[in-house]
């Protein structure tokens, strides 16, 4: 194993530990020392690789955001290309937004579960939501809004943005997997069944935009 490989493994261990702890306790409930302990490294090494806690928090969000954005953008561009020279349907656009994040195999992996919980935390935080979600996801979201304009040319922009606001809320709640719907439905629905959630959310959001 090369020195560079070992270095990357240490970085990944720190990111994994930070991701799990931030998801469980929030930003203010976690220290660099706790992250280093869970990662099995010295706190000085965590500081060396990522700097202060805020920079590590950003690195955790960026790592998987880049992957999610690439999946969703590819799915969206595929439906746009397939529909050309016309416009894709609203349902095709909404599916390209939800299915890459709720129906792929990564939803069963512990790291992704922690990341989704962390996104739910950030998106619902007055302190973090506006700044961080804008930083990591807005360019992709604007591309989706553009696609919806193509599909719904008569709909005012204000309606599209409020529609996206509702879409984002549904996705955030799905990410959080709180178990609330499990209790409400007496087990008929499960918040950890993201594939099932995806189908119902897509139908609901599509109807809302249409």
Characterize this entry briefly.
With 210 residues, the chain is mainly α.
How would you describe this protein?
- The structure is a single chain.
- The chain is mainly α and 210 residues long.
- It has ten helices and no strands.
- It is globular, with a radius of gyration of 19 Å.
- The relative contact order is 0.10.
Net shape: globular
In terms of structural class, how would the helical and strand content be classed? mainly alpha
Q: Which sequence of SSEs, written as H and E, runs from N to C?
A: HHHHHHHHHH
Average pLDDT number: 92
Tally of strands: 0
Helix content estimate: over 70%
Q: Compute the gyration radius: what is it?
A: 19 Å
In DSSP terms (H or I, runs of 4 or more residues), the helix count works out at 10
**Percent range for β-strand residues:** under 5%
User: How many angstroms does the end-to-end distance come to?
Assistant: 55 Å
- Unreliable stretches: none
Largest sheet, in brief, is: none
What are the defining features of this structure?
210 residues; mainly alpha; 77% helix; 0% strand
Task: List the SSEs and their pairings.
Layout: H1 3-25, H2 32-39, H3 43-50, H4 53-83, H5 90-102, H6 110-123, H7 129-151, H8 157-176, H9 180-184, H10 194-209
Helix pairs in contact: 1-2, 1-4, 1-6, 2-3, 4-5, 4-7, 5-10, 6-8, 8-10
